[in-house]
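Can anyone check this?
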Amino acid sequence: HMEPSNHLLKNTLNGDATIRILAEEGEQYLLYLINSNADKSFHSESEVNKVTSYEISMELPAGDYEGEWIDPVTGERTQFLIRKHSGGEYQFKTPPVGEDLALTITR
């Protein structure tokens, strides 16, 4: 079963964004990025369209994984593969984040 596993996160994010991790370590991971920067009180039109990507670094055992970014507002899904990870810290960049973003990683 999955358990809170924020200790796997190896970096902090800029601004007001936070990440929570649930994991069955070595098998499946769920990351949820809460983007508090997506404030509804914009000061100019250019800020309305402004989105941010984040660099995430987490501990991941060696192996092959399938990942999927999920936008919880639109339901849009973007899949990717992690092949032959040697174990240890794994770094990736999020797609542009509006409000929040979820990520699943499975073996």
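Reply from J.R.: I decoded it. The chain is about 5% helix and 50% strand.
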